[in-house]
Amino acid sequence: MEKQIDDKPGMRAARKAATALVFFGIVGAGIMLAGPDQAYPWIKALHVIAIISWMAGMLYLPRLFIYHSDCDPSSQEAKTFAVMETRLMKVIMTPAMVVSWILGLYLAWQVFAFQGGWLHAKIAAVVALSGVHGYFAKAVKSFGRGEYVGTPRYWRMMNEAPTLLMILIVVLAVVKPF
């Protein structure tokens, strides 16, 4: 019986993620070619799906860091957490972030012509969320090397950063306060 920390299951997961990205890319291109009126609801739906996937990872990864930082760096448990964190980042979070950005920028350009203070503030908040994503990616690499970054308490506090940014982004997108 193969273990999930082996390379083979990870390669299968990566292939599935790449296949899904290609599929969504083809679907997205077809929708965009259909014209803005027909494409808008589909692009918006795919954008929301990508955001949900990205945020699920952004909210879950710090929880993994909390448990990982409680382990001995040389333990089997730490190795398992490192594999989980790496796969979450590479297979789910980063592709979802890329799709979110591509579709979000398309919507900002095509629908809103990059106009509106709320849109500029939302884009700034998404840039900040992308920065948190980059920081988490760096932490995944550090944890994978056995170099622990922060304490469990630190990661509990860091878990709030994506939550607060998500709330801000949703309010700006839905309410459009300015």
Task: Briefly say what this structure is.
This protein is mostly helical and 178 residues long.
General description of the model:
The protein is mainly alpha-helical and 178 residues long. 82% of the residues lie in helices and 0% in strands. The protein has six helices and no strands. It has helices at 7-33, 36-68, 76-110, 117-144, 152-158, 160-175. The mean pLDDT is 91.
Structural class: mainly alpha
Give the integer mean of the pLDDT values: 91
- Rough outline: flat
| Largest pleated sheet | none
What is the end-to-end distance? Answer: 57 Å
Helix content: over 70%
Please mark out the parts with pLDDT under 50 across 5 or more consecutive residues, or reply none: none
Gyration radius (Cα, Å) is 18 Å
How much strand? under 5%
Helix count?
Answer: 6
Order of helices and strands: HHHHHH
Instruction: Report the strand count.
Output: 0
What attributes does this structure have?
single chain; 178 residues; mainly alpha; 6 helices; 82% helix; 0% strand
What's the arrangement of secondary structure elements?
Blueprint: H1 7-33, H2 36-68, H3 76-110, H4 117-144, H5 152-158, H6 160-175
Helix pairs in contact: 1-2, 1-3, 2-3, 2-4, 2-5, 3-4, 4-6
